[in-house]
Amino acid sequence: MTEFARPDGRKVDQLRTLVFQPNIAPNAQGSVLACFGSTHVICAASLEKKVPPWMRQQGVSGGWLTAEYSMLPYSTRDRKQRDSSKGRPDGRGVEIQRLIGRSLRAVIDLQKLPGHTLWVDCDVLQADGGTRTAAITGAYLAARLAVEHFVNTGVLAETPFRDSVAAVSVGVYRDTPVLDLNYLEDKEASVDCNVVRTGAGEYVEIQGAGEEATFSGDQLEELLALARAGITELSQRQESFLKTHLPKKEVDASPLGNKIPL
């Protein structure tokens, strides 16, 4: 009998090597390169003093948050055609960007973005499985950096975020539940799930399906347990990143009005 092994040698409950690189997009008020192993996603956040027409038409107060997602042509082994070349949006991309938007809106108070839209752009630089979960996890960090910038500069009165949010994939690979699937595992998985959860431990969304297979309640519980542990670790890494990289507020602390960071 062949002993079970993952393609990259990880344990079943082990995340891929995780890296968050800040300020990857200088023109955005908040940006992060989120790397889950060989999956690299650029996440950038910007604030626009404008809300969608439907909010004005319906008299909805507050602001809005929305996301866009795309895979760059060279992110995959075979070149991926741009949506602009095809003349129509990619259905998968539309579904993922809606998921990113829902995930972030679950942890933000839109009333604290009055008259503004927070745009979050997620562009996949390199794809090796789990691009949507990496995008959600990195998008939260980019949005937090952007929001803190606008709080510090007086554009926003206070941060609208109530909690953090992160996501991870789980699946059944060669009859074994595993955490954070890479492409080779995802391609062969008989069950594939994406789990989105807040830092406080509340679920935002669970997407799961058998790939020409079924799965039991016990397997689902095992997958969710793996996801909970993985997202707890991701939330801790997010918190550590923000402690280091959130911009410091400047105050007038001298008779001459010279600003120093708090």
Structure description:
The chain contains six helices and eleven strands. The protein is an alpha+beta fold and 262 residues long. It has a single domain (18-245), classed as GHMP Kinase, N-terminal domain (Ribosomal Protein S5, domain 2). Strands 1-2-3-5-4 form a five-stranded mixed beta sheet. It has a four-stranded antiparallel beta sheet with strand order 7-6-8-9, sandwiched between helices. It has a two-stranded antiparallel ribbon with strand order 10-11. Helix 3 (91-105) crosses helix 4 (131-152) and helix 4 (131-152) runs parallel beside helix 6 (217-245). The longest helix is centred in the last third of the chain and has 29 residues, at 217-245.
CATH superfamily: GHMP Kinase, N-terminal domain
CATH topology: Ribosomal Protein S5, domain 2
Number of helices: 6
Instruction: Assign the CATH architecture.
Output: 2-Layer Sandwich
| CA-CA gap between termini | 61 Å
If you average the pLDDT, what whole number results? 91
The best one-word shape is: globular
Helical fraction equals 25-40%
Order of helices and strands: EEEHEHHEHEEHEEHEE
Unreliable segments (pLDDT under 50, ≥5 consecutive)? Answer: 257-262
Q: Care to count the β-strands?
A: 11
Structural class: alpha+beta
Q: Return the domain count.
A: 1
Strand content: 25-35%
